[in-house]
Amino acid sequence: KPEILIWQVSFKKAIGIMPDYVDAHWELAKVYLKTGNKAKALKHFKVVAEKDNNVERSRNALQYIEQLKY
Length: 70
Fold this sequence. Notes:
The chain starts with a helix and ends with a helix. It is globular, with a radius of gyration of 11 Å. The chain has four helices and no strands. The chain is mainly alpha-helical and 70 residues long.
């Protein structure tokens, strides 16, 4: 889907400007998950798990990390 590529580019640009922008890491991780790029999804979920102040989203990121390890 073309919109997924647009989202991917947009979130990558946002992270390039603000590397600690957790919302962009979360959304980019989900995009990578949808496109089957588990390694890149894992990388961005790890950032969310480490830096997010949103406890629920941080827990969700940890759950994704556990699932993607295998």
